[in-house]
Amino acid sequence: MAELRMSDSEVARNFTEVLARVRQGAEVVVEHDRQPVAVLRPVVPPRRRISEVLALMSRTSTATMDADFAQDVQTAIDSHREPLEPPAWD
Q1: Is the pLDDT of residue 90 over 60?
Q2: Would the N or C end of the chain have less CB density within 10 A of its end CB?
Q3: CA-CA distances (angstroms) from residue 46 to 12, 28, 58?
């Protein structure tokens, strides 16, 4: 992964471009007066082992580990994507 060093003012001026570089895998060290203050890096998506997924399934589930199992799991994930609505006190 490439590491870029940029001043906070450079990042502020080119934020959309900086995020595009991060999406491509770059890590951006943000500096103020040549001192590092933050690092922007791509988020590592959370992953679960198949044993964890199976443990979370209901005992009445009809899912089977066949050629379509991955699609079944993706369908289940997609059907439970509620928008984040933090409490008012956040």
Answers
A1: no
A2: C
A3: 29, 21, 21
